[in-house]
Prior knowledge:
GO molecular function, one term: hydrolase activity, acting on glycosyl bonds
Mean pLDDT: 95
Keywords: Glycosidase, Hydrolase, Signal
Number of strands: 26
InterPro entries: Cyc-maltodext_N, Cyclo-malto-dextrinase_C, GH, GH13_cat_dom, Glyco_hydro_b, Ig-like_fold, Ig_E-set
Organism: Chitinophaga skermanii
Strand content: 15-25%
CATH class of the largest domain: Alpha Beta
Shape: globular
Distance between the termini: 62 Å
Protein name: Glycosidase
Largest sheet: 8 strands, parallel
Low-confidence stretches: 1-20
Helix content: 25-40%
Strand order of the largest sheet: 16-15-14-13-10-9-18-17
Amino acid sequence: MFNRVTIVLAALLCYLPLAAQQVQIYPSNWWVGMKKKQVQLLLRGDQFDAVNAQVTVQYPGVTLNGTHTFENNRYLAVDITIADNAQPGLVPIKYQYKKKTYTLQWPLEARVGKPGQTHAVGVTSKDVIYFLMPDRFSNGDPSNDKVPGLRDQSLNRQEIYDRHGGDFQGIINHLDYLQSLGVTALWTTPVLENDMPNRTEHGYAITNHYKVDARYGGEKMYRQLSDELHKRGMKLIQDAVYNHMGSYNFLVKDIPSKDWLNQWPTFTKTNAKDQTLFDPYAAPSDTKLMSDGWFVPEMPDWNQKNPFVANYIIQHAIWYVEKFGVDGIRIDTYIYNDLPFSNDCNAALEAEFPNITLYGEAWVNGTANQAFFAQNNIQTAFKSNLQGVVDFQLLFSGIIPALTQDFGWNTGVNQLYATLSNDFLYKDPTRNVLFLDNHDYNRFFSTVKGDVAKQKIAYQWLLTYRGIPQLYYGSEILMKGETNPDGWVRLDFPGGWAGDTVNAFTGKGLTDDQLSMQTMVKQLGQFRLRATALQTGKLMQYVPKEGLYVYFRYDDQQTVMCVMNTNKNARPVEFARYVDRIGGFKTARNVLTNEKINIDSDRQIPGMTMWVLELEK
C-alpha cells in the first residue's frame, strides 16, 4: 500500500529519466474509491508521436478502454476504467516512440477525508461568504511576490493593474478577522496559474488548470489554506472558469485540434444578449454569437460541444474539489457557457459530491432572465439544473433603487419589495447569493455617494434577507471605488502589507465612521451565527408605505422584525399593522443597540435608519 507522500516522490523520480520526452498527463492524478471510474487521460509531449504511440496499461484494477488521436500529433486521449478493487499506487502507462518503449507513472491515490464531512460539505443560507482577491488582501510571504520564469514580473502597489503581492499566507494570517465578522465561507478569485504577460492580478485567464499560481504560494499553500479553514469549521469556495482560458494556455498555443475552441475568421465578441438563449423568436445566429463569441482576444472561448473539451473541464472540476477540499463552486460567466455542457458538469459534480454547492454568475436584466439559468418553475425548452445564482436582480432592481431613488408607486424601496415577490420563479431562492458589490461592479459606498447611513442599512439588509449573503473585502470599512477604471474596485485591503499606515485588521488609523461601520457588521454577523430565523427561517414582507419597508424572518424558535426607513424623515412604525407576525409578542430587542421596545404602541424610526428587532414574549 502506498501512502500519499510515497506516491508523489516516486512519481517525481520516475519522471526524471523521461525529461527529454516531456510527456505530461492530465489529470495529473486520480483517486481510488471515486464514483467517477471512467477517466479520460490527455497525454501531451513535445516529442510524442501519438499515432504510433501503441499505449498499454498493466495495473490491477485499471483497464485500458481505447485511445483517440487529434490533428496535433503531440496529443493523445487515453480512456481508462478504475475498478472498485483498485489500490493506490503508480499506474505504468507505456508507449512507444521511435521503436523505444517509455513508461509514464501516473499516481492513483488514496482519498484523504470524506466528502460531505471533511470537504465538499456545501454552502447554505446558514453561511456568510467573504469574497476577496488574494493579490489585494494581504501579503503574508514576500518571497513569492515575483516568481522567475513567469511572464508578468510586475510588482508595484502604486499601479492598479500590476501585481501587489497578496497571497494565501496573508489570508491564513487573518482568518480570525474574517470570523470576527461572522464569516463562515471564503471565496477568492481564481487561484490557478495565470502565466499571462500582464493583468494577472484577477486570475481569470488560466494558463494551466493543473497548477496553482506560485505567486500565491502554490499547491501546498492552497491546501494549507483549505485545511486551516476546515479546522475552524469554515468552508472554501473555488472560482471556476469554464467559458474561456488565457491565450497563453498550452491548449491554445499548442492546440490539440481546431475544434477545441469556438473559432471565428477574425476576433468575434459575444453579443452578451442572454435573451437569445430563451427568446422563442431568437435568430439562431444571434444565439450562436451569444454562446460562442469571445470576451476579449486574450481569453479564447472553449468549444464545450467538443466531448474531449467537456471531459477535460469536468474532470478538472472533480479533481480540484477532491485535491484541495473545496466545499462550493462559484461558476464565472455562467450564461456564456454551452448550457447542456453546464448541466452535464453540474450533474457530474453532484454525483461525486452530493452536498457540494454550485452557484453561477448570471449578470442579466430581469428576474425571469436570471431564474432561467437556475433551477426554476418556468416552462422553457431548456431546463437548468444549477442550484442557484449570484443575485444581481436584488442588487440592481432591489437594494440600489431602495436607497438611491425617491419613494413612489414603482420606485425606491417598492422595487426591492417587487423584485423579491418574483421569487416564485425559482425552485429554491434561498440558494441564491446576495451581494452589494464585487470586483466587477462599483463599491456600494460609492454607489450611495459616501452616505454612511445608507451603507449601514444595506449591510443590515444583506445579513437579514433570504439567501446566502456575500461580503466583498473592505466594504465593511467603507472602501470606495468605481469600475472606470475597474482597478479602483480592486484596491488593497489596508493593513495587509508591512508598513501600511492604516490597519483595518486592528483598527489602527480607521476613521470613526469606518470603525462604526466595521463594528456594526461584526455585531450583526455574530448575531447571525446563532439566529436560526436569519439562517433558515421563512420570510414575510409587507407592502412598503411612504418609504417604510418591513419584513420578518421567523421559525419556531425565533422571530426577527426588520424595519427599513428609506425616507429622509422619521416615520411611525405602526406595530398593529403587522399582526400576522407579532401576535403573542410583547417587546422587541434592537439587536445592535440592545434597546428594548414595547410593541403595544407605535414608535418613530428616524430617517434613513434600519432596525433589526428580535421579538420577545
